[in-house]
Amino acid sequence: MISYIFEIAANRKKRMRKKYSNQLFLLINELGYNPEDFIMSDDIIEEHQSKSIKYKDTFFTFIIRNDQDSFDSFDYKHTVFAPNYPMSVYIPTAGYANFESVLNGFKNWMKNHVKEYLYEQNEPDLWRNFKNSDKSLNIENINFDNINSFSNQEKQQILMSINELKLLIYKELKPNNEEQKLISARLDYLIDATERLNKYDWKGLVITTLIGITTTLTLDTEKGQLLFELFRRVFNSFPKLL
Questions:
Q1: What span, in angstroms and rounded, lies between the C-alpha atoms of 239 and 122?
Q2: End-to-end distance of the chain based on CA atoms, in angstroms?
Q3: How far apart, in whole angstroms, are the C-alpha atoms of residue 34 and residue 7?
Q4: 37-73, pLDDT tens digit by residue?
């Protein structure tokens, strides 16, 4: 009898049905995110059994409340990508909605709020880089066919150019969050490589890196060509090998 009472109490705390939490899991994967990047918890919010989904290392949270009289009716609110990052009102503003509406709201939150926040955090500050750079150096003056090491000024210019390339890739290819992390890691590796490779060897690494990005992201021929074109646009003096 006692164990039965405890089982009822546990089930009350875990109000959301498994089929609904599983749909959230599948949607997170579908949107190109890693479920490990989310922290999910069961709470009591304003006397409602609730599910809170927080994107880790941020304050972005999506809260789903159960109707007190139904397992299948909900409302929700979320952190908004706006100054001071306020919480939205509960949606719908009156009554409750089915879980399909919750999923659509979660998708909208991920695409228009969390994604924009992550883009803002990851986007390089070209003005700051420009302010801290040597204005007398131009990427066109770097000879990538010699075996000399990069000077400190050239390394700085490579950094600025790679950051500009990231912005172009994000804008033109529109990678999802996981793909953006991969692209950023590959291009950051090129920046780090200026510390140990000479210019000629670095040129070879560029080619394999771009091919690697194209292969890993399974870009079609058109998008693969666009990736190389974006590189040429930034490194307009790079050897015709590309």
A1: 29
A2: 74
A3: 31
A4: 999 999 888 888 899 999 988 999 999 999 988 999 9
Place of tokens 């939150």: 109
CA distance 118 to 83: 15
Q: How many residues does the chain have?
A: 242
CB atoms within 10 A of CB 191: 15
pLDDT more than 90, % of the chain: 36
Cβ neighbours around 38 below 10 Å, total? 17
Containing H/E element for 86?
Answer: none
User: Which tokens belong to 80?
Assistant: 């908004």
Nearest to 188, CA basis, from 212, 159, 224: 159
Residue 45: which of 90, 100, 99 has the closest Cα?
90
Q: pTM for the complete prediction? A: 0.55
